[in-house]
Amino acid sequence: MSERSAPPGALTLVQALVNTLDVETGGDALDTAEGRAPFGLTEDTVDSARALRESLRAALLAHAGHPPHRAVTPLGDLLARAPLVVTVDTADGSAALTPVDDGPLLSRVAAAVAEAVTAGTWNRLKACEAADCHWAYYDRSPAGRGRWCSMRVCGARAKMRRYRAKEA
Asked: How high is the mean pLDDT of the chain?
C-alpha cells in the first residue's frame, strides 16, 4: 500500500513479513505456497511465522507511539529463541550477529533486528496508525514522526475523518 521507499538493509525482510497480511481485507499471503516461498516457510511453520509477524507489528506500532493491535507474545520472548552467533569479518574486523544457519525465519528476523538496532534504523520501521491498515513502512521524515504508510491513502482518510467530525 505504501509509496514509501524500502527500508535499509535487512529490515526489508521484517517489512515484507509484516506486510503479508492485508488488515483491511483479511488477505494473508502466508495462506499460499507462493506467499510462503520468499520466507522459506512450509505449512507446518506458518503458525509460528504468523505469531512472529504479529509480534513485529506490535513493536512497529510502539515505534509509532501506538498500543498493540491485540495481545501478542512479546517480540523479545520470540527473538530470544533465535540461534545467532557473532561473526567477525577478517578483512575489516567488523562484527555482526548472524543466524546459525540461513533456514529459520526467526533467526533471520532476529539478525535483521540486531543489525537495525546497531545501525540506528530499528525505531524508524513503523506500522501505519490507521486501524484498518497497520502496514509496515520505513519513516524517512526528518523528525521521524511519520504516522501513515501512505499520505495519499491512509493520511488522506484520517484527515477527511477529522474534517467531517469538525463539520458535524
From this structure: 89
